[in-house]
Amino acid sequence: MATTVFLSSFSSSSSLQLCSSFNGEYLASSSSFIGAPVTSLSLPGKKNSFSPRKFHVSAKKVSGLEEAIRIRKLRELETTSKVRRNPPLRRGRVSPRLLVPDHIPRPPYVESGVLPEISSEFQIPGPEGLVKMKAACELAARVLEYAGTLVKPSVTTNEIDKAVHDMIIEAGAYPSPLGYGGFPKSVCTSVNECMCHGIPDSRQLQSGDIINIDVTVYLDGYHGDTSKTFFCGDVDEGFKRLVKVTEECLEKGIAVCKDGASFKKIGKRISEHAEKFGFNVVERFVGHGVGPVFHSEPLIYHYRNDEPGQMVEGQTFTIEPILTIGTTKCVTWPDNWTTLTADGGVAAQCEHTILITKTGSEILTKC
Question: Which residues of this UniProt protein bind substrate (predicted)?
């Protein structure tokens, strides 16, 4: 389950000003150079019907980050008018919160109903803790795999939530989203243009939908967190490509992880791959440390950034990029959870919890 950050357009510590050029592109107002004056030329044997004019040729020095932002804006304009759109998402009826037997241990935040602050403590389980962490992550992976088999036309996300809830309870675990900051359900179900944190309701899935199911379980004092985007019925090839590239971005982000590696490498690798296919990376939602605490530092930015910090052997955290076909701007419904793309374009997300090792990383949320 992603956590939310509120960021300016740039994470870099340097301050950039943007100026709009005549054709709608954006360039940084950094240092520029002015070329020599150029005079309009006469054609041989022809007289100009207008007086000669001088003008200057100017150019801007553009950094790689600025150029990437410019390209992304252009791609947003190009793609939003081309892709197929499903009918706009409408909220259905949200059923009452499901019950959890008293004997199942709850995370500390459940009783308060208050959204916890992100812990500054890195999650580094000891040997015994790591055994418990792996068990929680394996359960989350099995639950997610089962939830994916339920994705069919006419099935409601409420029904998926109930099935996920029951499977987690039967395993003696607690569904981590339930009661987290008042979240009313046991799983997040984000359909089509919903970027993140969709609340299960009475809406029936339609052929052509894509749906991200985000499962987190709390077992024996540890959280396991994972998600995947599934296809419902006959799905548009463009949507399938978006999901495939999102999964590849996750893989590439994981591939750079090892003891001593910079966290910012994750965002760089994900952004490079997404841009290669014309997709955009959402900045608002980030990965996070996970273990006994649901959300902690480090925050994992999935886009290019200059944030400091290095990975440490034994550390556990999530990587969970969200990619969009169109804009990455978003709107949030009055429930304060469901977050949609501002232009109605589809979004896809996938997530793993990983463990940092000396030479690489281990994906914990695999069956």
Answer: 197, 295
Task: Label residues 146-163 b or e (16+ Cβ within 10 Å = b).
Answer: bbeebbeeeebbbbbbbb
Render pLDDT for 6-25 as a digit per residue (tens, 0 to 9): 444 333 333 333 333 323 33
Identify the CATH homologous superfamily for domain 127-363: Creatinase/methionine aminopeptidase superfamily (3.90.230.10)
- Please tell me the distance from the alpha carbon of residue 138 to that of residue 226, in angstroms, as a whole number: 10
- Asked if residue 197 belongs to a known ligand binding site, the reply is yes
Predicted model pTM: 0.79
- Distance CA(339)–CA(228), nearest Å, equals 17
Please give the Cα distance from 97 to 198 (Å, whole number).
15
Q: Is 111 annotated as a binding residue?
A: no
Residue 351 marked as a ligand binder: yes
Ligand-binding annotation for 170, yes or no, is no
As a whole-number percent, the residues of the chain with pLDDT over 90 amount to 74
Which residue bears the tokens 């309701």?
201
pLDDT, tens digit (0-9, with 9 covering 90-100), for 324-357: 999 999 999 999 999 999 999 999 999 999 999 9
CA dist list (Å): 107 to 61, 120, 135: 51, 18, 16
Sign of CA dihedral 348, 92, 199, 6: positive
Residue given tokens 């009475």 in the structure block: 202
225 is in an annotated binding site: yes
CB-CB contact of 133 with 316 (8 Å): yes
Domain edges within the chain: 127-363
> How far is Cα 309 from Cα 7, in angstroms, rounded to an integer?
18
Alpha helices (H) along the chain: 64-80, 109-112, 127-149, 157-170, 237-255, 264-276
Give just the sign of the alpha carbon dihedral 334, 337, 343, 346: negative
305 SS3 class:
coil
Which among 233, 219, 225, 214 has a CA at the least distance from the CA of 161?
Answer: 214
Residue 343 marked as a ligand binder: no
Q: 103 a known binding residue?
A: no
Asked whether the bond before 298 is cis by omega within 30 degrees of 0, the reply is yes
